């Protein structure tokens, strides 16, 4: 299995979309790509083939895993964010040379992923800076000069560990772990939770010298399910003892992602060991709802040509904040003419901001007919509300 090429295009003028080619491609002929890598054995018109070509390829190769291409795309987008920060059409156009170098280094001539570790890529393709751009214009071969080996590191691929550079030295050795979790839930009009789940990731920042061997253990690792780890993790150690053992990359990276399961489903084998089974997990999903840390009360009045609504959100937490809270309300087909006032504690100024100056904001998606209410920080036991009206043609 191989990836024929990669296309980067801007589909709205500001939002970047990335599409893979897996012996065929789903394309939108009304858009022109910003950047397109060379395709191995096909003509330039190959990306414009119909989706039927993909179905034919899948029929001939039943063993093809489409997630292979999606995984590579996700990795490549992460690499672009690592190099450019805010990825946009303007950023890519200003750094054509760097993007093409990354394409050449991340995929080999056969269409297989080659070098995808940011640590290794930085030794081959230098991140864009004003100095590197000036030297490139002047014709200086700065990549060869900087990476030729002048002491600690002996150049690209000198380390036996693909994700870690050789010869790293820090004055103070330290590593930071940040557990970032996101709760997603669906609540009906009566405030009853229909579904809820928590997805988390372990964001890490490593500043360790040499080749450190780290271990990270948890008080209750059984609540971590559906885990996806960085390649540095020793999977057998995690499987045997639920301990994360690894040699970390240098700098910032995501050590792993997981789903929080308050009631992990398990069964007992003949040997007496406790093992998890997909069937048991599926049957017990309803019991694994995570309690929502706030209450949401709704009052909606419908009329012939529209309606009004009043939503009140109150935090159940008494000691901790809730960060980046987003509530979406579907107003139905034909909804429009939205007018809202978002406030904290039932009070707002004439701009719809809370009296404390850090109020909520709202936006309406006219395509999906969804009202999106965002609150940056919900302090303990605080109450927030959004009131408004809308018109409808149906």
Write the layout of secondary structure elements.
Elements: E1 5-10, E2 16-21, E3 35-36, H1 52-60, H2 67-84, H3 89-94, H4 96-106, H5 118-124, H6 130-138, H7 142-146, E4 174-187, E5 193-207, E6 214-217, E7 224-229, H8 235-241, E8 243-246, E9 251-260, E10 267-268, E11 274-275, H9 278-283, E12 294-303, E13 306-315, E14 322-330, E15 335-344, E16 361-365, E17 370-378, E18 383-392
Antiparallel strand pairs: 1-2, 1-3, 4-5, 5-9, 6-8, 7-9, 10-11, 12-13, 13-18, 14-17, 15-18, 16-17
Q: How do the SSEs run, as a string of H and E?
A: EEEHHHHHHHEEEEHEEEEHEEEEEEE
How many strands, which pairing sense, and closed or not: the largest β-sheet? 4 strands, antiparallel
Strand order of the largest sheet: 4-5-9-7
Structural class: alpha+beta
Structurally, the number of domains stands at 3
Q: What's the β-strand tally?
A: 18
Strand content: 25-35%
Mean pLDDT: 76
Low-confidence regions: 11-31, 148-153, 267-276, 346-357
Span of the ends, CA to CA: 50 Å
Tally of contiguous helical segments: 9
> Which second-level CATH architecture of the largest domain applies?
2-Layer Sandwich
CATH topology of the largest domain: Beta-Lactamase
CATH class (first level) name of the largest domain: Alpha Beta
Radius of gyration: 26 Å
> What is the approximate shape?
globular
Keywords: Membrane, Protein transport, Transport
GO biological process, one term: intracellular protein transport
Family: Belongs to the adaptor complexes medium subunit family.
Subcellular location: Endomembrane system
């Amino acid at each position: 299995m191989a990836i024929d090429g990669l296309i980067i295009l801007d589909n709205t003028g500001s939002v970047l979309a990335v599409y893979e080619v897996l012996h065929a491609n789903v394309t939108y002929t009304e858009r022109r790509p910003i950047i397109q890598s060379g395709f191995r054995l096909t003509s330039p018109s190959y990306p414009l083939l119909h989706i039927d070509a993909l179905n034919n390829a899948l029929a001939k190769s039943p063993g093809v895993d489409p997630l292979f291409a999606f995984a590579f795309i996700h990795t490549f987008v992460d690499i672009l964010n690592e190099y450019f920060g805010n990825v946009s059409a303007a950023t890519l156009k200003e750094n054509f040379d760097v993007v093409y170098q990354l394409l050449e280094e991340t995929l080999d001539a056969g269409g297989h992923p080659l070098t995808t570790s940011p640590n290794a890529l930085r030794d081959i393709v230098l991140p864009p800076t004003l100095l590197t751009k000036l030297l490139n214009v002047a014709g200086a071969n700065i990549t060869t000069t900087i990476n030729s080996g002048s002491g600690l590191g002996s150049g690209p691929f000198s380390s036996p560990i693909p994700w870690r550079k050789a010869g790293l030295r820090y004055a103070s050795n330290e590593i930071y772990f940040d557990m970032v979790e996101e709760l997603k839930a669906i609540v009906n009009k009566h405030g009853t939770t229909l579904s809820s789940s928590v997805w988390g990731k372990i964001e890490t920042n490593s500043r360790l010298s040499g080749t450190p061997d780290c271990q990270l253990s948890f008080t209750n690792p059984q609540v971590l399910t559906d885990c996806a780890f960085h390649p540095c993790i020793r999977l057998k150690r995690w499987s045997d003892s639920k301990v994360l053992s690894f040699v970390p990359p240098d700098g910032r990276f995501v050590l792993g992602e997981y789903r929080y399961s308050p009631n992990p489903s398990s069964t007992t084998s003949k040997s007496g060991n406790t093992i998890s089974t997909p069937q048991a997990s599926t049957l017990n999903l309803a019991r694994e709802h995570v309690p929502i840390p706030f209450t949401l009360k709704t009052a909606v009045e419908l009329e012939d040509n529209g309606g009004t609504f009043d939503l009140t959100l109150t935090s159940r937490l008494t000691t901790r904040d809730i960060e980046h809270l987003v509530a979406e309300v579907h107003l139905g087909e034909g909804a429009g003419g939205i007018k809202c006032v978002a406030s904290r504690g039932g009070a707002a100024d004439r701009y719809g901001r809370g009296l404390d100056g850090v109020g909520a904001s709202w936006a309406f998606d006219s395509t999906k007919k969804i009202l999106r209410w965002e609150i940056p920080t919900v302090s303990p036991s605080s109450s927030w509300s959004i009131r408004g009206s809308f018109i409808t043609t149906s």
